[in-house]
Amino acid sequence: MFNLAIDSKLRGCDLVNLHVRDITHGNKVLARAMVVQRKTQRPVQFELTEPTRAAVTAWIEKAKLKPEQCLFPSRISKSAHVSTRQYARIVHQWVAAIGLDPTIYGTHTMRRTKATLIYRRTKNLRAVQLLLGHSKLESTVRYLGIEVDDALEISEQTEI
Question: Which of 25, 44, 45, 111 is an S-S bond match for 133, by CB 3.0 to 4.6 Å?
Fold first, then answer.
């Protein structure tokens, strides 16, 4: 779940609602997948790195999941998948287990992590906007917390 949350950059509601068929073809986990986001109703593509594919493959086999099942099924019969609240509890436990402050890090940290790394390495806002499924570039700027200093640094590196 952790690897997939980082790689997919999906909101918690979209992550917990993933079905096995969303990220597999036959018994193989795909290198790239696409889902329609619940909040925006916009499709978003994401890459699944090799470590994520290996982890997801192991999870599917261990849980004996079928293509039509949710990737993270609930133990409660009335719900098909774990709730976003349960996902938040899991993230809280991960954060505490590695010695970080759980009041600072949460489910949205999983979504933001790879997007922030991509932006820091490339300074390509448009790419990050597409990967997150944002409709407005301004949303991506706010989301990443880009400050005037960042904008000036990019400007200084750009020659005409």
Answer: 44
Q: What is the pLDDT of residues 48-93, one digit of tens each?
A: 999 999 999 999 999 999 999 999 999 887 788 999 999 999 999 9
Check if the beta carbon of residue 115 is closer than 8 Å to that of residue 131.
Answer: yes
pLDDT at 149: 65
Helix H segments across the chain? 2-8, 12-16, 20-23, 50-63, 84-97, 107-122, 125-132, 137-144, 148-157
- Reading phi first (left if > 0) and then psi (alpha if -120 to 50, else beta), residue 2 is in alpha
* pTM summary value: 0.83
Estimate to the nearest angstrom the gap between the alpha carbon of 37 and the chain centroid.
11
> How far is it, in rounded angstroms, from Cα 48 to Cα 60?
15
- Residues 70 and 76 sit within 8 Å (Cβ to Cβ): no
Domain extent listing, the chain: 2-157
